[in-house]
Amino acid sequence: MSEFILSRAPFRISFGGGGTDVPPYCWEHGGAVVSMTVSLYARTVLRVLKERKMVLRSLDLGLEWSSGLGKAEYDGQLDLLKAAVNEFSPRKGFELTTHSDLPPSSGMGTSSSLTVSLIGCLAEFTGRKLGTEEIAEMAYHLEREELGQEGGYQDQYAAAFGGLNFMEFGRKGVRVEPLSLRPETMELFLEHLCLFSTGEIFLPEELRGLAARRRREKRKGIHREMVERMEEREYLSHLHSLKRMAVEM
User: Fold this and answer.
1) Rounded to whole angstroms, how far apart are CA atoms 80 and 143?
2) Strands 4-16 and 173-178, bridge-based pairing
3) Topology at the third CATH level for domain 4-248
4) For residue range 76-85, what is the model confidence (pLDDT) as tens digits?
5) Could you tell me the residue ranges of all domains in the chain?
């Protein structure tokens, strides 16, 4: 085995349907998203160590953690890296370093791209063979179920599959349909596509509003219930519109 293993996964931009991939909406109504990955990446570098220890490092966050081989306990520091390591349980010592072409919380699926990159690197290190869909499913499991982070499905699948895709989400799973554009159409499209950084930190909870609040709050009283129902109808109407936009593309 090589002394170093390198892995990367692209970030994505969404053109329509963002938010409809988030449960419970996608389970109850079905979600649809059109997204495309770009040439900006989350990167993972693994260096094999002779010592039976593990070193985790994030250059973006300026954090480092080390321990003997075994299960890593979550403490709010590098938990995403620890979750990936726990999933694979390496038996050899290693040093894992991550860095990204974009700052964290940029609103382009940065954490999910990092998770996919981590999975690819650790799968190679441990000799575990994973398909593209398996990588996406594992990334979703680690972020949403293992660590309990709020969010949907599109980021993990976009990072794992790459390219321009139409994705549908429901209780039965996720369907990814690659979209093909003629070279001249793609060239014209890219000539008119600009990506800007505002310097603002993207907080998913601000956009998921009701979906997250419904799980965190218990509202009481008739008036409160009426307001909640009105908010839900308005929220669902917006999500239905976003889904139609993705489907019509």
Assistant:
1) 7
2) unpaired
3) Ribosomal Protein S5; domain 2 (3.30.230)
4) 999 999 999 9
5) 4-248
One of 21, 60, 75, 155 is an active-site residue; which one?
155
Q: Is the dihedral of CA 119, 122, 126, 131 positive or negative?
A: positive
**To which residue do tokens 């008119």 refer?**
192
Model pLDDT for residues 91-111, shown as the tens digit of each residue: 999 999 999 998 888 888 899
Asked about 101 being catalytic, the answer comes back as no
**Sign of torsion, CA 241 247 248 249?**
positive
